[in-house]
Amino acid sequence: MKAATKIIGPPKSDDGIRFVPITDTLYPALFAARKTPFEPVFTQPTTGRRHTISSMSCLWDNFKRELDISMGAKVYRNEIILSLVAQDLVPYCLRHTYGTDLQDAGVPINVARYLMGHSDIALTSKVYTDTTEYAIKDALEKMNQNEKRIRKIE
């Protein structure tokens, strides 16, 4: 959506046009927050108006601060003196988290490619997913299940 309007701009490519499912937990909250079609859901708590670039910057800075503190950053007199959050953390980085979360949830890579709006599956697999401890444990569990299945056949 373009700033200060109710106009939704075009995606970068045709792959950006897609249906993205919303989880059963999040959907009711978003639906309840919606006032009318195309009305912004995430608004400034004090004014109820759409966020500005400045208010979004403050929102992100506050999020990073709370994240840093929850991760164990050292705080002295309400100032963070030893940060644990990467300085270059920006909202776009959450796309990598989304890709990895899809992988950990067992979503096939071709479906993750679609959900992320990529035309090339290699981009999804090489850039937007990471090997996690959960993924490794899940692979081991699947190998063990397969081994048991094979033993039953023998």
Keywords:
single chain; 154 residues; mainly alpha; 6 helices
Characterise the protein shown here.
This protein has helices at about 25-35, 55-70, 95-105, 110-115, 120-125, 135-154; strands at about 75, 80. With about 150 residues, the protein is mainly alpha-helical. It has a two-stranded antiparallel sheet. Helix 4 (about 110-115) crosses helix 5. The relative contact order is 0.08. The mean pLDDT is about 85.
The termini sit apart by 59 Å
Percent in strands? under 5%
> How do the strands of the widest beta sheet line up side by side?
1-2
Please state the oligomeric state of the protein chains shown. Answer: single chain
Number of helices: 6
**Total DSSP E strands:** 2
What are the segments in which pLDDT stays under 50 over at least 5 consecutive residues? none
Shape: extended
Describe the secondary structure blueprint for this structure.
Layout: H1 26-33, H2 53-70, E1 74-76, E2 79-82, H3 94-104, H4 109-116, H5 121-127, H6 133-153
Could you give a short description of this structure?
The chain is mainly alpha-helical. It contains 6 helices and 2 strands.
